[in-house]
């Protein structure tokens, strides 16, 4: 895939060991993609802005370092988003920085960026320049609306992309204000599409020896996951609307309130599953009703079916409902909080709750590695770096002398 890493470059392990990645993005979309590569062995160098002159180091770097809940001045989210990476603190607004990025990119396999379209070109770091210096480079570009089109210059954060991609219109209860999902799902979907694009481009590069540019728009990643939304509108003029906890057109599939106030999510929409579900709730006559033998018939009588399931669930605790459904082999589950997740034995058995040691000696729980490979699994090699922690090492690997590094530091180009 790539040549052996130069002396001094961390080699790691995993299927992407030896892959060299340069990350120029910030916040969520680009860094999530680069973190996924890092989890599986890639050497990811993250470029972050140093603090403004005269300001403390804690004011510089990726803004995610200061998002949400902080521990000792740094977001605990940072330990997830930037694990297995190295940090180079470099001011991309300086002319000397563009020369350094070009030098680094010339030795990399992949470059990831999620700035607004045109920003990289403004720094002299567009695809024309970078691919001219390194024809094998795979360049992932993530933006709100993509690198082309009439909206390319609009700022496009994840929540805007989720709305533009059609997702926000479907979330929430009918007739009420559409709600966002509780996480930045638009950014994450774009990141994962970006990783797919990188792996496709690397596979093709193995044949052609040439790199290419991957253009991922946040809204397109969302739109790509909208299932039958567009063809239903095209064929029938149907504009799908929000449906709360139900799944329109597929029955029964809903959240049912139990006697203790909890909810059971029940998916009884397979034909044989539906029959088992009806037996379980004491309504076998519905299970053998010819009109309800397939999904189309059940959709027409979904209110009746939901009422029957709801009446049964309301007389039992959530645990009793789920136990009975598990015994009947009907897909069901409760709504998990993070406290439930942290205590769940299945999460633990699958290695999805891992612990890292922080600088102060405390332990922090972080999500495990996904996906799971049997022979070359990913892993946690490095904690998320301090700002500029690896600046000197990365620049030395790029061929700069100690005197050149010090000159850049004196000029405020690096931290």
Give a written overview of the molecule.
37% of the residues lie in helices and 14% in strands. The protein has 415 residues and is an alpha/beta fold. The chain folds into two domains: 264 residues, 3-Layer(aba) Sandwich (Rossmann fold); 82 residues, formyl-coa transferase, domain 3. A six-stranded parallel beta sheet has the order 5-2-1-6-7-8, with helices on both faces. Strands 9-10-11 form a three-stranded antiparallel beta sheet, covered by helices on one side. Strands 3-4 form a two-stranded antiparallel sheet. The longest helix has 24 residues.
Entry keywords:
6-stranded parallel sheet, 3-stranded antiparallel sheet, Rossmann fold, disordered N terminus, formyl-coa transferase, domain 3, 2 domains, 415 residues, 18 helices, single chain, alpha/beta, 37% helix, elongated
CATH 4th-level superfamily of the largest domain: Crotonobetainyl-coa:carnitine coa-transferase, domain 1
Tally of discrete structural domains? 2
The helix count comes to 18
Shape: elongated
Please report the total strand number as a whole number: 13
Report how far the terminal alpha carbons are from each other: 33 Å
Structural class: alpha/beta
Write the CATH architecture name of the largest domain: 3-Layer(aba) Sandwich
CATH class of the largest domain, named Alpha Beta
Determine the CATH topology of the largest domain: Rossmann fold
The protein's oligomeric status is single chain
Rounded to an integer in angstroms, the radius of gyration calculated over CA atoms is: 25 Å
User: Biggest β-sheet: count, sense, barrel?
Assistant: 6 strands, parallel
Residue share in helix: 25-40%
Mean of all residue-level pLDDT scores: 95
- Beta-strand proportion: 5-15%
Spatial order of the strands forming the largest sheet:
5-2-1-6-7-8
Poorly predicted ranges: 1-8
